[in-house]
Amino acid sequence: MERAIHQFALAVTSRNQVHFAMPETSSIDPALPFIDLHRHLDGSIRLETIIDLARQHNIELPGATVEEIRPHVQVTEPQPGLMAFIAKMLWGTRMLVNGEACRRIARENVEDAQREGIDYLELRFSPYFMAEPHQLDMAEVIEGVAAGIAEGVAATGVRVNLIGILSRTYGAEICYKELEALLVHRQNFVALDLAGDEANYPAPLFVDHFKKGRDAGWRITIHAGEAGGAQSVWDAIQLLGAERIGHGVRALEDPKLTDYLREHRVPIEANLTSNVHTSTVADLNSHPLRDMLARGLICSINTDDPGISAIDLRHEFEVAAPAAGLSREQIHQAQINALETAFLSKQEKQDLKSKKAESNRTQ
């Protein structure tokens, strides 16, 4: 079943994402806020925008239409690993020639979240990764993103928080510079993350970076247990102070870690389709999320890079989660978990629930 679901086909949505048939009965609870906690800003760029920015700035693309560039930008079959998946993002970052381009893609991210029916979104990005193709000042990237998010929020009413990423792929020294740039604009971020080449740049290289991040008052979420094993998750928690784990696919390999995650209620930001696309798991049916939830782990369902995977959050709930063997009860619990583990205060969570209830009453 999951093989059939996973084939890309037919029509295209306004976000240039492949359209998947949705079930007639929704497993999304309309009474609860619809939340994505793990989404990369630079992995969520519209294909039309890539084409438009390329035309404006005379950047050569491998095609002139959405369909011509799609195979270069989006995943049409599982990639041989995480870094091959990340390489798909480079066509998007190549278009970020200035702060205005960063502002545009940030605003469009929020607009697209509204179209998906998302009530609360945590968007994360690495300023160095976005700045590197055109050697931009990271401050220009951060300021452009912050301005675009503010515009998008004002226009849509979607609640958005930003998470700053240190891109481990570039090594510890570049990450120090990235951290410095983020700290200058610390008021724009709620949390700090570590992403990129997990296998070759492990957590011990970044202990000091994350101490500084915690000292700045940021929450901490770490990509771990995706390209690395269970020890990577342990290191994220014990060395970097992770409050949440991004992916955590390999966590069940260590029974002691599984027990720790359950007993200490360490949340996991699960990303079903993405984990197939990076070959972290063989297919949706092989994904451990159903077993994680069955063992009492606090997992949410998220998109990761919807622009690269050609999906949205509704697809992950309505298509990917059932294909991964999740029951309706588990999908519902994952939606509850997203609200409980969001980087929001208790009052902000209550406000989000109240706003959702008010919206349902007026519909």
Description:
This protein is of the alpha/beta class. The chain has 18 helices and 8 strands. It is 47% helix and 12% strand. α6 runs parallel beside α8.
CATH architecture field: Alpha-Beta Barrel
Number of helices: 18
Low-pLDDT ranges = 1-19
Order of helices and strands: HEHHHHHEHHEHEHEHEHEHHEHHHH
Distance between the termini: 35 Å
CATH fold naming? TIM Barrel
Helicity range: 40-55%
Give Rg in angstroms. Answer: 19 Å
Portion of residues in beta strands equals: 5-15%
CATH class: Alpha Beta
Number of domains: 1
Tally of DSSP β-strands: 8
**How would you describe the shape?**
globular
Q: Any key phrases for this structure?
A:
alpha/beta; 8 strands; eight-stranded parallel sheet; 363 residues; disordered N terminus; globular; 12% strand; TIM Barrel
SSE layout:
Layout: H1 2-5, E1 35-40, H2 47-56, H3 66-73, H4 82-87, H5 90-93, H6 99-115, E2 120-125, H7 127-131, H8 138-156, E3 159-167, H9 172-184, E4 191-195, H10 207-215, E5 219-224, H11 230-238, E6 244-247, H12 255-263, E7 268-270, H13 272-277, H14 289-294, E8 299-301, H15 306-309, H16 313-323, H17 328-341, H18 346-362
Helix pairs in contact: 6-8
Provide a concise account of the structure shown.
This protein has 18 helices and eight strands. The protein is an alpha/beta fold.
